[in-house]
């Protein structure tokens, strides 16, 4: 039997990159999957179709992670469609790679709204429906613990907040058997942070493996944390960064 058979997972920001890889992997492991997206309707539909072609169940829900009402509604629609919610993956996030002194207040507000407030709102909404033994998984960043490259000051601060949110929440919901973990990718080859991009050279240079990671490598760790074999792992920050923080 598949590890996530009869489980329901919601992945925010699941239309591309790491989120899409997570959605496909959890579906392959047997979960019914809902993904949210902001603008990429075609990309989201493509993820759903790929999952369905492989025999899985999936839906896409338009919901900006910075819109609290839309995020809450996405959780409700997931529950209404699939009959419950067992796994929440707080993947939606954004970055503004530039020097802190040049970052605008609007950009700072957007970072906070999506990377911190969006995680809070989605998690709070999910916990109202989650049964004992559920999984809360956030996608943080290795720079939430250690910043080795310039241009990521406010972004790293938001990911540091996710780290502490994970640790604190694990204490509150542990009595329900719900685990709360933070998966912290390093440089991963995506549309937002391509391995051939302008910011790639300094990021690659600080890895131990000398390369960017692949989205499937992050998805594999998320799948493990979402599964039954990780039931005694909670309040942790699990870094998949090619040795960036070594």
Q: How would you characterize this protein structure?
A:
This protein is of the alpha/beta class and 246 residues long. The protein has a single domain, classed as Rossmann fold, CATH 3.40.50.720. Helices cover 41% and strands 15% of the residues. Strands 3-2-1-4-5-6-7 form a seven-stranded parallel beta sheet, with helices on both faces. Helix 4 links the parallel strand 4 and strand 5. Helix 1 packs parallel to helix 2, helix 1 crosses helix 7 and helix 3 packs parallel to helix 4.
Task: Describe how the helices and strands are arranged.
Elements: E1 8-11, H1 17-28, E2 32-37, H2 41-53, E3 58-62, H3 68-82, E4 87-90, H4 105-127, E5 135-139, H5 153-173, E6 179-185, H6 200-205, H7 215-226, E7 236-240
Parallel strand pairs: 1-2, 1-4, 2-3, 4-5, 5-6, 6-7
The shape is globular
* End-to-end Cα distance: 37 Å
Poorly predicted runs: none
Name of the top-level CATH class:
Alpha Beta
**Rg over CA atoms:** 17 Å
Strand line-up of the largest beta sheet: 3-2-1-4-5-6-7
Strand content: 5-15%
What is the typical, i.e. mean, pLDDT?
A: 96
- What's the number of extended β-strand segments? 7
User: SSE order, as H and E?
Assistant: EHEHEHEHEHEHHE
The CATH architecture name reads: 3-Layer(aba) Sandwich
Summarize the amount of helix as a percent range.
Answer: 40-55%
Count of individual helical segments: 7
The CATH homologous superfamily name equals: NAD(P)-binding Rossmann-like Domain
Overall SS class: alpha/beta
**Largest sheet at a glance?**
7 strands, parallel
Count of the separate structural domains: 1
- CATH fold title: Rossmann fold
């Amino acid at each position: 039997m598949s590890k996530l058979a009869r489980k329901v997972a919601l992945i925010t920001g699941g239309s591309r990159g790491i989120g899409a890889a997570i959605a496909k992997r959890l579906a392959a492991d047997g979960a019914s999957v809902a993904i949210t997206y902001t603008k990429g309707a075609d990309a989201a539909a493509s993820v759903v179709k790929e999952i369905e072609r492989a025999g899985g169940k999936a839906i896409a829900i338009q919901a900006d992670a910075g819109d609290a009402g839309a995020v809450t509604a996405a959780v409700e629609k997931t529950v209404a469609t699939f009959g419950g919610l067992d796994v929440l993956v707080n993947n939606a996030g954004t970055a503004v790679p530039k020097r802190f002194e040049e970052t605008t207040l609007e950009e700072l507000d957007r970072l906070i709204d999506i990377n911190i407030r969006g995680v809070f709102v989605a998690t709070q909404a999910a916990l109202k429906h989650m049964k004992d033994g559920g999984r809360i998984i956030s996608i943080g960043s290795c720079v939430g613990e250690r910043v080795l490259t310039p241009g990521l000051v406010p972004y790293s601060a938001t990911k540091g907040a996710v780290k502490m949110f994970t640790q604190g929440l694990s204490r509150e919901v542990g009595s329900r058997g719900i685990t709360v973990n933070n998966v912290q990718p390093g440089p991963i080859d995506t549309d937002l942070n391509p391995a051939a991009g302008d910011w790639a050279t300094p990021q690659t240079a600080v890895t131990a493996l000398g390369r960017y990671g692949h989205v499937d490598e992050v998805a594999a760790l998320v799948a493990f944390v979402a599964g039954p074999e990780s039931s005694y792992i909670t309040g942790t920050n699990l870094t998949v960064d090619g040795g960036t923080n070594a």
